[in-house]
Specification:
The chain is α+β, with helices and mostly antiparallel strands and 167 residues long. Helices cover 28% and strands 44% of the residues. It contains three helices and nine strands, in the order αββββαββββαβ. Strands 1, 2, 3, 4, 5, 6, 7, 8 and 9 form a nine-stranded antiparallel sheet that branches. The protein is globular and about 45 Å long. The N terminus is likely disordered.
Length: 167
């Protein structure tokens, strides 16, 4: 009986999260993907949405209210806020115990974006951090079959198409 119950829960949870498409609204921000993705999971605490594409890319997007972040300071400029967000996550990966190797790839504060990577024994993830008004945005992709250039192009393309969601 327990097996049937857990199997039913698993099927229902897959149905709930098996939303697919090119556009998703996350925390009042419209995210447009260049290819179809399927929403697989979300972490309500961190505001992270986890997607998978048909080519098996693992994609993570989070859109967070800046004022709710532990490093937030009301006197920060937009650029200082983005840099604080990047430093906060970069330092987390650099100092945690999972053996991550972290590296900044590019920082273009005029375009409000920072691209960096985290390498674990399981593979490399490319991140793009950006900001739209009061929203801190994180986009990442992991797929061993894609080159770094393809991953960077993907996160950059997604970020360029981000806009405020209008209901």
């Amino acid at each position: 009986m327990k097996k049937i119950f857990f199997s039913l829960i698993l099927i229902i949870s897959q149905f709930i999260f098996a939303q697919s498409g090119y556009r998703f609204a996350i925390n009042e921000v419209l995210i447009k993907f260049p290819k179809e993705v399927e929403l697989r999971d979300l972490n309500k605490v961190s505001g992270q949405y986890f997607f998978v594409s048909k080519d098996k890319s693992n994609i993570q997007v989070s859109v967070r209210n800046a004022s709710k972040m532990e490093f937030y300071n009301s006197v920060f400029t937009k650029t200082e806020l983005l840099d604080a967000f990047y430093k906060w996550d970069f330092d987390y990966w650099k100092t945690n115990s999972v053996g991550a190797e972290v590296k900044e790839i590019s920082k273009n504060l005029e375009k409000d974006q920072i691209i960096w990577e985290v390498t674990l024994k399981e593979g490399k993830t490319i991140f793009l951090f950006g900001i739209l008004e009061d929203k801190l945005i994180s986009i990442s992709i992991n797929n061993a079959d894609l080159s770094d250039e393809e991953k960077i192009n993907f996160v950059t393309k997604v970020y360029k198409q981000i806009s405020k969601y209008k209901k």
